[in-house]
Amino acid sequence: MKFVEVVPGEAGEVNGLARKIWPLVYSDMISQGQIDYMLDWMYAPETIREEIEEENIVYLLIEAQESRVGFVSFGPLLSGAPCCIHKIYVAPEFHRRGIGRQALKEISRRAINADSSCLELRVNRGNERAINFYESCGFQIIREDCADIGGGFVMDDYIFRKPLLKMH
User: Fold this and answer.
1) Is residue 143 packed enough to be buried (19+ CB in 10 Å), middle (13-18) or exposed (0-12)?
2) Residue 135 backbone dihedrals phi, psi, to 5 degrees
3) Which strands form 67-74's sheet, in the order they lie side by side?
4) How many other β-carbons are positioned within 10 Å of the β-carbon of residue 36?
5) pLDDT (tens digit, 9 = 90+) per residue, 122-160?
6) N or C: the chain end with fewer CB closer than 10 Å?
7) Quick one: which of 151, 136, 147, 156 has its CA closest to 36?
8) With a threshold of 0.70, does the pTM exceed it?
9) Do the bridges between strand 67-74 and strand 118-124 make them parallel or antiparallel, or are there none, so unpaired?
């Protein structure tokens, strides 16, 4: 497995992967209208380019079996601050192969090197598979958050946190 850092000109590739993965993952949790709204909002190539160039968000494509099977985004990486994991998505046909755990290890390694204090992420409260996965990786729910994202939609999430263990 390999992690390939996305440069701004490759934002369309992340968009394409999201458009393949999201409907498969979220169709039983949120409406197709909300899926389309969020894909157009969060995964527009210009949004991804702006996050990389102006907000110091890191995007990594995940390669396995000689194909791109998912992606992650996280950051910014700031000393003493939480490292926010914005996205971890792996195509469902590649679930349960350790790819998500390897992605978390890669993010953790980079966050530790940047002296981040912990990892934080959001999970849809109806996404039992992701909730179980993150809990099995040592994350704990620290609060609930229901955020209005416009278009008549909300993100109804748990906020998870995991401390980072510094290696000496």
Assistant:
1) exposed
2) -65, -40
3) 2-5, 58-64, 67-74, 83-90, 118-124, 153-163, 140-150
4) 14
5) 999 999 999 999 999 999 999 999 999 999 999 999 999
6) C
7) 151
8) yes
9) unpaired
